[in-house]
Design goal:
Immunoglobulin-like, four-stranded mixed sheet, 10 strands
Length: 191
């Protein structure tokens, strides 16, 4: 009889409990620059209607915890925030839900190639709130035939600046070897 009572109470205690389930929505932000998809380095993703945001972590991923299945909407605030991503959770994790967005850059691979053709390559800088000049920088600019371009506190998307500078780096490497790299400013983006 005692065994039946314990089993009876155990059944109703278990039956009355609700199982709380937590789901994870995560992935990377991929941006399209000229002709390639690359991982965003800095982005903020919004889980719309839940008032939650997530910055990219050290591995370049965003992550949200949600407590129920259903429909969710996401958007990337840094790039093309009018694009809404729709997601349906039906009982499994949605990790590796990558978000693909186009990005419009003033500085990119095409701009770099054009600047090289016009013999006006630039090295893009991220110096800080107030642009500054290093003593002797004009001498280095003249020696290697480029100009520094300082954004001050209004940086473009870092991915755009890195893509531009990468093309310029390759151009300077071919023209001058690797020695130019030790002479330039340390705040050149992507070096």
């Amino acid at each position: 009889m005692i065994y039946k009572l314990i089993l009876f109470f155990s059944f109703f205690t278990s039956f009355g409990q609700t199982i709380k389930t937590e789901f994870e929505i995560s992935g990377k932000v991929k941006i399209y620059l000229v002709d390639e998809w690359i991982d965003a380095k800095e982005a903020t993703v919004e889980l719309i209607k839940k008032n939650k945001i997530s910055d990219l972590d050290n591995s370049g991923k965003y992550k949200f915890k949600v407590d129920k299945t259903g429909s969710y909407e996401l958007r990337v605030l840094n790039f093309n925030d009018s694009k809404i991503f729709h997601l349906e959770i039906i009982g499994e994790l949605k990790n590796n839900f990558d978000l693909y967005v186009d990005i419009d850059c003033d500085f990119n691979k095409l701009t770099a190639e054009k600047d090289i053709k016009m013999n006006k390559p630039r090295l893009l800088l991220a110096s800080g709130i107030v642009p500054f000049l290093e003593i002797g920088q004009e001498k280095i600019e003249n020696k290697y035939n480029f100009k520094y371009y300082d954004f001050g506190c209004i940086l473009p998307h870092i991915e755009c600046a890195e893509q531009y500078n990468k093309i310029i780096f390759n151009y300077l490497d071919k023209k001058y070897g690797m020695n130019w790299r030790k002479d330039i400013r340390k705040d050149v983006i992507g070096l």
